[in-house]
Every structure is written in C-alpha cells, then in structure tokens.
Amino acid sequence: CLLPRVVRELLHDRLSPALWNLLMAIAKQAEVRGWQLYLVGGAVRDLLLSGTNNSKQAQSSLPDIDLVVDGFHQTADQAAGVELARSLQQTYPDARLQVHGRFQTAALTWHNHPEFDSLWVDIATARTEFYPYPAANPEVEASSIRQDLYRRDFTINALAIRLTPPRVGEMLDFFGGLLDLKAKQIRVLHANSFIEDPTRIFRAVRFAVRLGFAIDPQTEGYIHHAIASGVYHRIQLEMEKTPALQTRLKQELKYILEAPYWKSAVRLLSDLGAMCCIHSNLHLDDRLWWQLRLVDRWLRRFDTNHTLEQWLVLLEVLLAQLATPDRVKVAENLQLPADSIERLRSLDQIQANLMANLPACFRPSQIYQHLHPYNLPTLTLLAVLMPRHTRRQIWHYLTHLTTVKPPIDGNDLKAMGYKPGKQYKPMLEALLNATLDGEIHDRSQAEAFLQATFPSP
Ligand code: ATP
Q: Nearest-5° angle of CA 249, CA 121, CA 112?
C-alpha cells in the first residue's frame, strides 16, 4: 500500500536529513512557480527495493538523484529545470552547476561536502523524445511527466514520486512498474524500444543480473526481434553518424565489464545473441569465454593496486576476436583511449614478432629483452591469445624476471669511479642480463663482472 504518506515516510527514513532538506528546497522553488517536481529513475526503484529493509542507510548508497520538473509555463529563455537549478544554487553556493544537452538538463554536484559527501542531482524538464529513425539521436520536446516517463527504458525505471504539494509522496506508476518490481522482472514500455536504442539490451542485462531479476518473456522476444531485424548491423555500418549512441554503448559496456557480476552479464548477453550488437562477427565461444576468465585472473594477480582499467582490457579481449580492421574500427567508434586502439591495431604484428623470436629464447635475459617493451595490458592480452609455451614465458617474465635487480646500481658505479655518462646504460643492461641469467648473485661478483667486461675507470 504505497499511500503518499507511506512513500513520504520511506523517503524520510531512507534519505539523510540533509538530502531530504535539499529535495524539499527544490520542491519549494518549483511550487512557488506553480510547477510539479518529481523524483524519478533509479533512485525511486532502489528506494522501493530497499523499502522492506527499514534500516537508516546513508544517502551515498543511493544512485544519483534524477528529478524531473513539469514546468507548464516555462520561461522563454531557459528550461524549467535550469531555472530551478540556478535558483537553488543561490541557497547552496557550494554546489557546482552544469547545464548540458540540447534540452538543457541542469546538474548540481557536490564533492566532499560535509553533509552530502559526493552527490549528483540532475534536474531535467519533462520531455518527450522522438527517434526519427532507428538508433538515431532523439529529437526532443517539452512534455508532461507521463510522456517523460514513457520515453524511459523499463517499467521499473519509469516510476516517479511527486515532491510538490498537494500530494507529496504520490507514486506515479503509469506502466506497471510496481508490479514488475514485485515480480522481479525487466519489461520495456513498448515493442520498438530496442530498435530505438540498442544500448537498452545492455541495460536490460545489467539490471537483470544486478538486481537478480528476469527479463520478461515478451521483452526478450522484442530483443530477439530487434537483433533479427538486422538493425544493429546497419547501425554498425554507419556508426560514425551516431556518436551519442557510441558514447552510451561504451558506458554500458563499461558498467557491465567493471561490475563484480560481469561474467553472468556476458553470458546472458551471449544467450540473448546480443554480442553481435558490438560487432556482427562477435560470438562468445568456449575459447573466448576461457580467454576472458583468464585475463580476469591475470589482472587480479598482477594489477593488485587496480591501476589499470580492467574493464577495458576485457573489452579488448572481446575485440581481439575480430579481424584487425574491424576491431580498430569498433574501438575508434567507441572512442576507446588511444593506447587501447593502438594495441588492437598492432596486436597481430606483435604476436607474429614474438612467435618468430620467443621459441628460440632459452636464456632469461633473452626473454626479458623481447617482453620488456610491452606493458601489462599488452602482455595479458598476448598471454591469452598465444600458445601455452609463450603464455608460460610471459608468466615467468611477470612473476620472476621483472622482480630481478642487479646488485649494483648507477650510484655504485659512480662510487666505483666510473665517470657518469651514457656508457652507464649498456653497463647497467649488461649487469641486469648477467643477473637474470644467474651469472652474478652478489656485489663482489658484480664488481668482478664489471671489471672484466668494462675495463676499469
Ligand atoms: P544506476 O543505479 O545504474 O545508475 P539508473 O536507473 O539511475 O541506475 P541511469 O543510467 O543513471 O540509471 O539512468 C537514469 C534513468 O534514465 C533511468 O532510470 C531511466 O529511467 C532513464 N534512462 C537511462 N538510459 C536510458 C535509455 N537508454 N533509454 C531510456 N531511458 C533511459
């Protein structure tokens, strides 16, 4: 029984007092202008999902706050959401205001705030989107809250809570989102949803796996229909024309591949036949599945400080299945970082090079010389793509050879009387090679080696 009073109490209980006061302050600004303000999207969904758990949780566990203002009489020069955000900024001068998008959505953000910590509040003006053709950039116009909710992806994300009087706390559920939350299912609002926006397939999978929900059978049918229609294949051919779609697709891939549940999500994407939305030749076979899990294990073993973008390396493994021109094209369209694109471009060449040289390397210093030019993401990628013998050499390089240090460094050379200069480089390299190959173990052996190899200073 989601009476306004119950929802109000839930909000009050779930949000920190500072956040509650902020929402009420924004609602007040809307009210004095005769507008309606709504809390929408993920915050409503997660609020209801956590509703059974009455504990007072910090607001930081809530997603970003999405608000929609139904501004019946917008000012001529700016959208209602922007006007609200600007007036709010006078009350909260420490908030940063950003206005973005063709339809002027305003975002207020706080970082390391004593009460909000980090908080992102989007204030949008109720709008409708039209897709002039599949996967196009939508055209946008002002609308009522009902139409605004109708443009959303799934029923569970199309719920709204009214924050302005007279019915503060009223739940707006035009499309059966509450029932779907209860039934734990992901359902789209209309049959064309996935044709309009292919990234919704990735979102459906993400929410299904993350929330432990099922994709409703009819919605799954729409996914199959959209894929079978060939629309994504056509989109791929014209990817450059849809940069906004590419940005969203990259964002969704990132969300999925960096989540702790990425394996289940990738499997579900594959079961739905949706890998082809990344590229029509991409399929999750046993080998690719093994490669993904192996990369994951290697990264956990070698990138213990999480300095790498591990999701990106997983994505590179996926793209590495494609022919080089295709993988580079997809990477460019997704606007991956330049070093990722370069790695995908040069992968075949590096592999050929190593295949030609590594099998004949028996001394550790030789293996070191061949692998040293490459960074961890490249080596990890090479390891899963190359035969077992090479993989073992890369493993040995990362676990042992990279930890070897000669017993003498540049300062010692100076102390020994060698004049500093560019001759230090070959000397230190020779020392490292001899240490790698087990020819020297301690300082006195190193000094003897130097004197024999590089006549005394
Ligand atoms: P999360 O907790 O993952 O952030 P969220 O629901 O807040 O979940 P966002 O990506 O922040 O997800 O999107 C906010 C809201 O915008 C969604 O709840 C949904 O209503 C709407 N939305 C986002 N992406 C799409 C899309 N591709 N198509 C339609 N509606 C979307």
A: 105
Which of these three, 144, 168, 183, is where a domain ends?
A: 183
Check if 197 has its Cβ closer than 6 Å to any atom of ligand 1: yes
Based on the domain organization, do 82 and 199 belong to the same domain? no
Q: Which residue has a Cα nearest atom 9 of ligand 1?
A: 42
In this structure, what CATH number is given to the domain that contains residue 176? 3.30.460.10
86-to-78, 81, 293, 322, 445 alpha-carbon distances in Å: 10, 9, 48, 48, 72
Does the Cβ of 66 fall within 6 Å of ligand 1? yes
Q: Is the CB of 41 under 6 A from ligand 1?
A: yes
Domain end residue (candidates: 150, 183, 216): 183
- Given the CA of residue 203, which atom of ligand 1 is nearest to it? 27
Ligand 1 pocket, residue 199 CB under 6 Å = yes
Query: Pocket of ligand 1, candidates 47, 152, 172: which has the most ligand atoms within 8 Å of its Cβ, to mutate?
Result: 152
Please state the domain count of the chain: 3
Mutate to test the pocket of ligand 1, among 39, 118, 153, 223 (most ligand atoms within 8 A of CB): 153
Q: Is residue 109 within 8 Å of residue 53, measured between CB atoms?
A: no
| Cis status of the peptide bond prior to 166, with omega within 30 of 0 | yes
Task: Determine if ligand 1 sits within 6 Å of the CB of residue 252.
Answer: no
Would 360 be classed as within a structural domain? no
Beta strands in 105-184 (DSSP E): 105-113, 117-125, 127-130, 139-142, 160-162, 171-172
The answer to whether residue 291 is domain-embedded is no
Note whether 233 and 143 are same-domain residues.
Answer: no
CATH of the domain at 228: 1.10.3090.10
Domain assignment of residue 222, given as a range: 184-278
Residue carrying structure tokens 């443009």: 151
**pLDDT digit of tens for each residue in the chain (457 aa)?**
678 888 888 888 888 888 899 999 999 999 999 999 999 999 999 999 985 443 333 333 455 899 999 875 555 556 888 989 999 988 888 899 999 876 678 999 998 888 778 899 999 988 777 776 776 776 666 678 999 999 999 999 999 999 999 999 999 999 999 999 999 999 999 999 999 998 999 999 999 999 999 999 999 999 999 999 887 777 777 767 778 888 889 999 999 999 999 999 999 999 999 999 899 999 999 999 999 999 999 999 999 999 999 999 999 999 999 999 999 999 999 999 999 999 999 999 999 999 999 988 889 999 999 999 999 999 999 999 999 999 999 999 999 999 999 998 989 888 888 888 888 899 999 999 999 999 999 999 998 898 888 876 5
Let me know: does 189 contact 158? Beta carbons within 8 Å: yes
